[in-house]
Every structure is written in structure tokens, then in C-alpha cells.
Write the C-alpha cells for this entry.
Amino acid sequence: MGRKLLTEHVNVEGIETFAVYRKHGGYRAVEKALKMTPDEVVEEVKKSGLRGRGGAGFPTGMKWSFLAKPEGVPRYLVCNADESEPGTFKDRYLMSKLPHLLIEGMIASSYALGARTSYIYIRGELLYVLRILEKAIAEAYAAGFLGENIQGSGYSLDLHVHPGGGAYICGEETALLESLEGKRGNPRNKPPFPAVQGLYARPTVVNNVESIATVVPILNLGGDEYAKIGVGRSTGTKLFSACGHLNKPGIYELELGVPVEEFIYSDEYCGGIWKGRDLKAVVAGGSSVPILPKELILKTAAGENRLMTYESLSDGGFVTGTMLGSGGFIAMDETTCIVKNTWNFSRFYHHESCGQCSPCREGTGWLEKVLHRLEHGHGSMHDIDLIVSVAKQIEGNTICPLGEAAAWPVAAAVRHFRDEFEWHVTHPKEATQPGAVYRGNLVLA
Amino acid sequence: MEPTSPAAKPQFSPAAQAEIKRLLTHYPDDRRKSALLPVLHIAQAEFGGWVSPEVQDLVAETLSLRPIEVYEVSTFYTMFNLKPVGKHVLEICRTGPCMLRGSDELTAQLERITGAKVGGTSPDGLFTLKEVECLAACGFAPVVQVREKYYESLDTEENVNAMLSELKSLVHRPILPWEETGLPTSLQNN
């Protein structure tokens, strides 16, 4: 079992309260940060090699260093707690179990960035988590870790939680900022980037919950020590949310570098595939990353063991690889219909497209429609090429990455499971039987 | 025919007004519009689980916005119900990970038990069924959200029945101050 830097104390009774959290070393990172200069804190995060835990994997320290700091203009830190990527449920866990970890990270990060007001934008469905956070924030104010002159340092910070209203697109950082301003969640054109014009047109950094929480162990250990954990440029630990057909779905904190095979089959982690079945495919980083068949998720095309790292999961590019993404790990057993699953994901993206860019608004609709007819036995061979072509025309032609997120799963499903799509065309009767699934030429009811 | 009396203009309760006042302190004075989503949540909780045009106008007035600024937002986000709903709205997750663990079967089961169809309300007015996208609880699928509470692992008859009887036993759910809904099973101490 590897080190746990975020969830070490997660099962301590009362850890959601300030007193117990503090007793277990809580708020030491804030005390440490306040004795450093803001730039020194940024430097530690840079040294740690921390990469954004929301899905894009962009280095957090570098993102921070882009923040514009014009004299006399307020700037903001906004925490992206709009966790909505199918397969991902780690931030909900972190916030409900360890609210003070996020708050501590927010204080240290806000100090580093010079923000005097910070927001946690949480998806509206998680109102009960918002209550947990508000309770913890009130405790932090009472203990002098928020508000005026924190711990006598002269630094002051207000922290607020803000609920969304149900919209996947608000996980995109500029849509999130629009939403926080009380508008529809339409992503903004970039540039200007939020680092220059973000919330209320002020310089703003938007970071994922887990990224901000990770600032706490980084400061406690020091950036250099943190960077020693993990493999290569995949430093530290990361939360993975495992779901689908696993014996033990749930949230696992891993030192980056655990072999995928061990993660799936070891009893320490997911405990193998349920009901004694065989693994068919995995979507390794949330619904938008390319699906891989069993052979390619366990080993790279070159036959090396695939590891739970940014680099190893993307080995082979989109031809034979995928992405670590948000860490939403969806396992599918041998009875899973890939066509149905692809249709389901396309319906999701169609539903969640904000409608601003025509390639995405129209394209996601066509993907859903054509996949629906393929799944229901009314498709043609041409339809298979059609969805690939529609996906290609969405990709790269939209303001925000929802376009890519909708296109990639379709392209990858056809790339790796084309014969299954063709079987739906050539054997519509068999394919539409309840529970039927393509396995070579076998139909299993 | 009797002339119908105009419906009384909706008003926020004193508790809701106090909560809105508190929320407005979170944003700069010239950015009251930021409070729109939180205030819409309060409005929906106060006025029977949905936001009528009159309620949306009240929200606009409360935040000094033009009504269209509220309408364009309430119609964008999926959590706001724009039509009357039953006492409990069961939001059933239908996205991939829940589908893999039986959300289609769950939906059919809930339709059968409650007598409501997805998008509609049961004849006794108790349950409205609504299909939603990913609720971020994929490891504990299939999942249903009812107001602020998540019901998880609904792949057994037992868990489904427990959810429905808990909901039936709720006589009145106070709106404000916010009730403690309790953590979903997956987040209780393990």
C-alpha cells in the first residue's frame, strides 16, 4: 500500500470538525505558508510538479505564475468543485469527508496568489456538501484562519461556497465563471484567459478541488520531497474513482505509477471484475477519454505494463493509448455492449452541449441520433463512417473542449470495436435481443 | 362564470429573506446578479419544488434584475423545474456508469411501483420521475437524488423499498433553516 497524503486521516472519527482536523496536523500548511512570501509558496508548488487534477493535467504552479497582478486590482481564486465528468466522484468524497483539507488548501493557495476573496463553485446537486463546507468554513473563521488578519499575519481572506444549477459545461473554467456571475454557463472565447480577465473581468485562477487540497501536503513536505513520489513527470499521489463492473468500486488514493493490472485485480484496490467475468474494456479517465480494449489498457502496444501515470496511459497517443484525465476509471465486463455505451455517452454530451457552437450543438445531436439507430438495429454500414466523420468535424471547431470530449469516445469506440458496430448492422435481430452482446460471432442472451 | 381572483403574489418567508441577505454579502455590491443561482434554489425549495413565472419574477425583483435575466438562466440549468412537480422528485441518473449497474432496470422498476412515467408524476401526487445525467456517485450506482439527499446502490429491491418508504414517511420537509439530510451510505464512516 502506497503513501496516502490526502486521505491519511479520512476515517478518523470527527475529522470533519476543526478540532479533530487540527489535532491531526491540520492547518500546519497555512501556518507554514504565512511565514513564507507568496512567491515562495508558488515556487514550492512549481517544484512539486503538481499537475491539475481536474482532467487537463496542466502544471498547477505554471498556471499560477500566469496570473496577472496589476496594482490595486482585486484578483480571485475559484475552486472548481463542479465534478460532473461521468465516472468521476472523488471531489465529492474529499469535500464531504475532509472539508477542512480543501479549506486549508484554499487559504494557502489564495495567499500565494494574493486573493482576498475566494470562491468554491460546487455543482448544485451537491447542496448537502455545500452545507458541510459552510459549517467547516464557519469553524475556520471562528478559529482565526479566515477573515481579517489571519493568525496575526496581516493577510485577510473571505471564502464563500457557491452552488451551480445542474450543467456539466460549468466544469469548463470560463463557463464556471459565467455561472458564478449569475449567467448561463456559456464558455467564453479565449483570449483573454481567466488569468488576465476572469471573474468580474479580474485576474482569476480556477483550480480543481483535488489540486487545491494537494497544496497542503506539498507545503507540509516541501515541493522537492513531494516530487520524489510517483514516476517521472507524474509526481505525487492522485485520487482515482473506480466504477463500473468491479468487485470493489470506490475511491482510491494511489502513488502515481501503480500498474493498471494491479489496480484492477489486486484485492488491495478494485478486487477484479465482478461476477467472475472477464474484462472487456476500460475508460480510464472519465467518459471523454478514449476507450481501450482489455489488451491495450493492461499493456501498451509495445507490450509494456501500463501504469497509472499521465505518460503511460497516453502512451500510443489516441491510436493505442488514452488519457489519465480526471481519474474516473470505468471498467466494463464482457457482457457490455460497446455500441449502447457509446450511444449513452453521446446522449450525455448532446444533453450537456451549451448550444453556442454549431459543430457541437448539431454534431452531438447527430452522434446521438445515428448511434441510437445503430444500437437499435436500424443502422447502415455508412452510419459507422458517418459518426466518425461527424466526430472529426466537431473536434477542434468549438470554443471549449466539450467538442473534443464528445468526439473522442466515438472515434475510439469505432477504432477499437468496429466489428461490433458492423455486427449491429449485419445482425440487427440478434443485436437487439435483450442482453445480447457481440463476442466474436457469439450472441449471449 | 365567476371572475377568478388573481393569484396572490408569492413572497419569500422571513427565513428565506434572511438567507438571501446573507448570500448577498458573498459578492461585490455591484454584482448582486451572482446570487441568482443560490436564490433560485431557495425559491424552488420555498414554493413547492418548482419555479413558476411568478416566482421567477419575484427572484428578479429581489435581485433587481430584469425578468428575462432570470428566465434565460432557469431554462439553462437542469435542476430548476419549470412545471409543477409531485411531493418528491426522484432524479434518476441514466449516464454510462449507472447504466452499467442497472439504471435502466431501476427506472422501469420505479415507473412500475410509483405509477409515474419518466417526466411525469404519480397519480397520488407523491412522486415525479426525472432522468438526469451523471450525479458524481458512479461507484455506488445506480443512484437517485431526492432534493438534497442521494440514495445509492439501488440495485437491490431492499434499497429501493427503503428509499420509497423513507420518502413516504416524510410528512413535511422544512425548507429553512436547511435540514440535515445525512450523508449517503458510501460517505458514512466505513
Chain B touches chain A through 51 residues (CB under 8 Å).
